[in-house]
Design brief:
By secondary structure, the chain is α/β, with parallel strands linked by helices. The chain has 6 helices and 7 strands, in the order βαβββαββαβααα.
Length: 183
Amino acid sequence: MWVIAGLGNPGKKYSRTRHNIGFMVLEEVARRHTVDLKVRKDYRVGKGSLDAHNILLIEPLLYMNMSGTIIKKILLKYSILPEHLITIYDDIDIQIGRLKIKKKGSSGGHKGIESIIQNIGSQEFIRIKVGIGKDEGILAENYVLRRFKRREIPIIKKMIHTAADAVYTIVAEGVERAMNRFN
């Protein structure tokens, strides 16, 4: 089984902000594979299949910097190794409209990923980093909580579809093939 986690912040206030691109991609994956996401106490979850592989889609409903508590709970509950965890999240150091897939590594300063690493005790999980760009005149903490500009919306819609394609490729064909195709 694969656990696919989209990271973001809960609530309408944050629903279409840059920091919630992980939720947006996960919801596209759910739509494509007809997975119904149900609300639990502190996360949304849905089970399904992707190219004959079982998948569990997760949206932690705690704030980004507490995502790891939910991910740990899910990995333990289903006895999933970190190597079968795919995280999808925003990255301000990647140009808007681009993505990068990594097999493992540090948090790179991303609070949600840092929370996951601390809680599961491993850096050995797959990351799909979705570029949201940055604005040098705005603090990163404020920038990620902003909505996309009107001119960026077509780029982001395309990026959401591309990131969902990357999820499919990782699960169906392997992370190496996905890295070669999407990085």
